[in-house]
Structures are given as structure tokens and as C-alpha cells.
């Protein structure tokens, strides 16, 4: 029996809420609401999952879950998810547990929570994957920092080797000339790039950007920044 729809969220809002949860919280980044009517029991689709959304006050019964199970088709690797605002009957929960369907419930205020073992397992797995990505980023950043430091030391050593000791003493003894403001653009830009290299870890959305893109941005910006600072240093010594 179809119950009376809840207030605040429309059925369409509920579908987009479920798609957003799947994208940002459950790891299905390509999840999207189906555009066509007559979707055969599927409201949100992803390469690796399908979901049905019901914004009812009454509980979901076993037939709705059977419809979702049948709508998956022959690809048994796809995850099955069901989102309901009215909860689930005991028979529905039993059927979901037997067929590995993740049951979620959502409220009018857009909060959501898992309702069975499959949903809790899927949620924990997604959280663990995000934590693993953060660990990978931390390790990658540390490696990039070590390589940048080693490169800066090599540049310093090379500069010291290319300038004889008597030239260094002569340069140090010579009166310093005033440096015009335009000559400092290298060091200024270098500092800006080094600061910008930290943005991916503090300002970028980790849920919508890949670890590889953040690490690449950090490595490129930090490397350019260090090279500009070293260039400014060499120019200043001359």
C-alpha cells in the first residue's frame, strides 16, 4: 500500500538526495537520477549500483524490494540499495538480508542512516576507503617533500661548485647594489606557488577530487616555487 508522502522533501528531492549520498558518502561517484519514467524499479543508477527511492510515510514491503532485485538484471555484481523515508516491514528486512540489499532510511531534514547489516557494511567500507585515500595522500605528500628538499640541496651544491672560492670572497666583499623591485618577482612568485601547493589538502573537496589530482597539483606547484626561489637566490648572488 502506498502511504501519504511526507512534507518538506518532494519525491524528486528524495531521489536527488539519495544520488548525492551515493556519490559523496558511499563511493558511487557516477551515481545519477534516472531521467526517464517507467524505470522498472530503479531511481538512481551507477556503473556499480542501482537504487530505488520511496518517499512514503508507510513502511516498504517485500514486493518493492523484489522489484528492485529484478530490475538489476543479469549483472549480479551491482550493489542494490533502497532508500525509504517510512522504514521497512520485518518481511522486507528479512528479504533484504537474504539478498544483500542495503536498506537506508532518510528524514525530512535530509538526514540518513543504515537500517540493516548490508547497509552498515557498505557505509563502513566507504568510510574506510576515504580514510585510506587520506593516508595515501599523506604518504605521497611526504615523499614529494623529501624529493623537493633533495633537489634544493643539489641545486645549492651545484651553485657552490660553479663559483670559485676567490670569486665568492670577492662578491661578498663587494658593495651590494640596490635591487630594483622587479627583480624580486621570482622569489615572490615562488612563495605564492609554495603556498598554493597546500590548497588541495585544506581547501579542495576531498570527496569530489581524486588523490592523484591533489598530489599532482602539490608536486607541480611546490617544485616550481622552489625552483623560482633558487633562481632568485642565484641571481641575487651574482
From TrEMBL:
Residue ranges of domain Restriction endonuclease type IV Mrr in the record: 9-104
SUPFAM superfamilies per the UniProt record, alphabetical: Restriction endonuclease-like
Biological processes, Gene Ontology terms: DNA restriction-modification system
GO terms for MF: DNA binding; restriction endodeoxyribonuclease activity
PANTHER family membership: MRR RESTRICTION SYSTEM PROTEIN, TYPE IV METHYL-DIRECTED RESTRICTION ENZYME ECOKMRR
InterPro entries: Restrct_endonuc-II-like, Restrct_endonuc_IV_Mrr, tRNA_endonuc-like_dom_sf, Type_IV_Methyl-Rstrct_Enzyme
Keywords: Endonuclease, Hydrolase, Membrane, Nuclease, Transmembrane, Transmembrane helix
Keyword Transmembrane helix: yes
One Pfam family from the record: Mrr_cat
Name of the molecule in the record: Restriction endonuclease
Ranges annotated as spanning the membrane: 183-203, 215-234
Amino acid at each position: 500500500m502506498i502511504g501519504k508522502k511526507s512534507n518538506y522533501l518532494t519525491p524528486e528531492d528524495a531521489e536527488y538526495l539519495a544520488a548525492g549520498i551515493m556519490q559523496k558518502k558511499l563511493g558511487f561517484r557516477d551515481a545519477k537520477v534516472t531521467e526517464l519514467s517507467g524505470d522498472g524499479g530503479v531511481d538512481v543508477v551507477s556503473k556499480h549500483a542501482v537504487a530505488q527511492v520511496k518517499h512514503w510515510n508507510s513502511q516498504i514491503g517485500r514486493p518493492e524490494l523484489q522489484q528492485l532485485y529484478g530490475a538489476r538484471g543479469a549483472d549480479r555484481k551491482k550493489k542494490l540499495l533502497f532508500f525509504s523515508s517510512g522504514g521497512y516491514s520485518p518481511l522486507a528486512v528479512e528479504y533484504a538480508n537474504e539478498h544483500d540489499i542495503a536498506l537506508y532510511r532518510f528524514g525530512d531534514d535530509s538526514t540518513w542512516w543504515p537500517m540493516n547489516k548490508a547497509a552498515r557494511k557498505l557505509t563502513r567500507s566507504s568510510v574506510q576507503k576515504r580514510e585510506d585515500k587520506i593516508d595515501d595522500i599523506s604518504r605521497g605528500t611526504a615523499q614529494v617533500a623529501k624529493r623537493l628538499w633533495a633537489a634544493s640541496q643539489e641545486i645549492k651544491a651545484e651553485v657552490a661548485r660553479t663559483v670559485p672560492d676567490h670569486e665568492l670572497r670577492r662578491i661578498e666583499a663587494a658593495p651590494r647594489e640596490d635591487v630594483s623591485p622587479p627583480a624580486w618577482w621570482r622569489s615572490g612568485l615562488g612563495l605564492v606557488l609554495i603556498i598554493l601547493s597546500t590548497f588541495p589538502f585544506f581547501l579542495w573537496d576531498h570527496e569530489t577530487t581524486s588523490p592523484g589530482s591533489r598530489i599532482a597539483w602539490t608536486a607541480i606547484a611546490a617544485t616550481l616555487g622552489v625552483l623560482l626561489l633558487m633562481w632568485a637566490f642565484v641571481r641575487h648572488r651574482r
